[in-house]
Amino acid sequence: MTSIARILPRLSPLAVLAALAAAPFFVGRFQTFQLATILIWAVAILGVNMLTGFSGQITLASGAFVGIGAYVTSVLAVHAGVDPLLTVLVAAPAGFACGVAVGVPAARLRGIQLIILTAVVAVAFAPVVKRLDALTGGAPGLAVPRPAAPAAWGVSVDAWVLWLSLIPAAAVWYVGAQIARGRIGRTLVAVKELDLAAPALGFDPSRYRIFTFAISSSFCAVAGSMYAWSYGFVAPDAFPLTLSITLLACAVIGGLTSVWGALAGGAVLTLTPYFLGEVSASLTGLLFGAALILLVYVMPGGVAGVLAAARSRLLAARRSGRAGGLRVRGSAAPEGGPNRVSTVDPETQTGGSDVR
Amino acid sequence: MTLFIQQVVDGIASGVIYAALALALVLIYRSMTLVNVAQGEMAMFSTYIAWQLTAWGLPIALAAPLVVGISLLGGMAVERVVIRPVQHRSVLDVLVVTLGLLLIFNSAAGAIWGTTAKRLPSLFPDDTVAIGGVTFGLETLGIVAVLLVVCGALAALFRFTSIGLAMRATTSNRESARLCGIPAHRMLMLGWGLAAALGGLAGVLIAPRVFLDPNMMLGVLVYAFAATALGGFDSPLGAVIGGVIVGVVENLAGVYVGFIGTDLKVLVPLILIVGVLLVRPRGLLGSPRVARV
Prior knowledge:
The complex is a heterodimer. By secondary structure, chain A is an all-alpha fold. Chain A has a domain at 9-241. Chain A has helices spanning 2-22, 29-55, 62-79, 84-106, 111-131, 133-136, 157-181, 183-193, 205-231, 241-254, 259-276, 281-298, 302-321, 325-332, and strands at residues 142-143, 233-234. Chain A has a two-stranded antiparallel ribbon. Chain B is an all-alpha fold. A two-stranded antiparallel ribbon of chain B has the order 1-2. The longest helix of chain B has 31 residues, at 2-32. The chains are: A mainly alpha, B mainly alpha. At the A-B interface, α5, α10 and α12 of A face α4, α9 and α11 of B.
């Protein structure tokens, strides 16, 4: 039983990957496109998670970094004729470099000042892109050739884009999970929780902050590349400040400290406008804003935090089950049993416990 | 030289509007060490209400004070309903809540009034007076006059009235203020109300110069951020000075720095903010931050 519990988490990413890869054979072209869109935002939200969940920094520049990645891919594909798939190899380091550029001043700042700095970056993005119109096509935007499979294979563009998107998404996931589980992730949480004490323990918080900022920006830029593949079009106003806030909202909805929460967040970000769009486009923003506030009120760990709490209760119950402790624990828990998800584990409220 | 002075004057005209919003930010920062990221969007919403009133036939001279009053009540309601439940939580949590507010106000304005730009009539006649070759728009002079009066009134409120004293006491030490019998919660509510009223006024004043749309205040908010960063987050005087400096520098850079031009003016606050935060994080007039480990 224990061995299954140990193997299962390793298998589930592969299972999700396989399910996504098989999806185009079972669902329509539009659903395939939506799956690719979910992947885009999941990757960007994972970047937000890295920064906000593990390092405790809030950024409003994530949307701008998605934009940077999208434009790197588009400009390379349009002006230099580079294969769109390869451009991600440039977009990721470009995002990393821009992340370092913003991260160096950002590492010295806390909460409010950081919000201000990144908000300005987000607001400055569109005018700068419009100004560099020789390269970026200015305000009207830039049409990008979507990657296409060899004609003889008879694969739809949407399926091909989804398959291509799985490659960077899987890579980003692997890196993210390694960081989250490993020494860096633990140190980041330490730096977040013990801002002033961390240097006394021998960590240089600035270095970790800059690194997280750069990694986060790099993930966002990769999402941008995928965006350009999926949509085949980029425009300066597609990456506004409100996109960054929406990404943050969905990261919080999914759960800030979980790599799986990012996938849930991506699905929320993609599907909510789809279902609400027929009513009103503005309704989505209203809903995300309200969700953001309500989630902070009721469950600080987000959905994934609640799930992690439920899981850890379940594991604890099973562990103590042999010694007959299950009953004791179960009766101590509120009615509904140990896996009632409405109760938040006090540990996860800090956002630190599911990094173990 | 005349051109230079003209640009400085024009810069001051936008600078005082940044100063008004910056002052609103400082009001809230001083009372709860929180920058209300939604301040600009709340101001935008107030401005839409003003537009709606004029669309119903009210003259702008009547609509403007009415909107300031509505904003005052609205700001108090936002503090009571949304902010108070989280006020003891971490900075991160409260910031996230204000970000949610930003999104809500932005989307609500889009849902109610649509996203096409609207035109709000100006409070002042579209005339100019020339003094020594420098042209002053009556609108500019009017805006400066209104904001000077408002700043004076605010300063008087804080200095000479018992409510102002109670608000300052709440800012200085909430617990002690409460022990002295000051209704600290109500003072915080009032602070939010005043900030929203100030923002609403700034919105009504700037809307005739830019078109009224749901994203109108995002840019202004960034300039107000720069003003508060420059002047110091907790200094009202710093906010005003910072706002004017940002306005003037922005305008001069747009004219004299070729690459920036009118399109990239938004880079000016970015550079100012980075510079100030790196060199003197507390701003020109702010107090230094200390923390206990």
